[in-house]
Amino acid sequence: MSPSELPAGVERVLFTQEQIEARICELAAQISEHYKDKNLKLIGVLKGSVFFLAELARRIRIPVKVDFLAISSFSNRSGAPGLVRIAKDLDDSIEGEDVLLIEDIVDTGFTLRYLLQTLSSRGPNSLAVCTFLDRTSRRIVQVPVEYRCFEIPDHFVIGFGLDYNQLYRNLNYVAVLNPDRAG
Ligand code: IMP
Ligand code: MG
Hints:
Elements: E1 10-15, H1 17-34, E2 40-46, H2 50-59, E3 65-73, E4 84-88, E5 98-106, H3 110-120, E6 126-134, E7 147-151, E8 157-158, E9 174-177
Helix pairs in contact: 1-2
The structure holds inosinic acid and magnesium ion.
């Protein structure tokens, strides 16, 4: 796509649709192999992870269940300690299941730490994390991340599920936000 076709809020493209698809295929193959004798359930964190989860799940070659939860997050980019609560819980129990928590991005790690604490208390057989993007340079609390599509630099990003003021989730690429021109 030429720069003139990009939306105003896009500073530059970080990962194209082709790069994203290729990487998701690799992750799906790893996950299919690792969980082939397990009871895999993907848990998506609304709303950002929906786009990634849908692409990933379509390429996983073993039986898989899907469930979602939503959180309200009060963590902010200035690094203030994150306060998180569940705004919409899972529909079903995860007891005895092999849960793969699907995130859009792990930044400070506060959200993920809260989710792992909450879900691990519900008796899953196993609990692991797969994130679309990982920004380890801003990590404040250490959290285990088993699968990641891409490590990213310290810029606010949009697209492929990631939003700025609820916009840009539908971009089929990941881009750095231009805050001066964003909607
Ligand atoms: P954490 O608790 O700091 O790890 O925050 C993770 C959450 O912050 C993600 O699930 C996103 O909702 C949001 N977030 C962090 N960085 C970005 C970004 O660059 N673009 C869009 N959302 C972000
Ligand atoms: Mg999120």
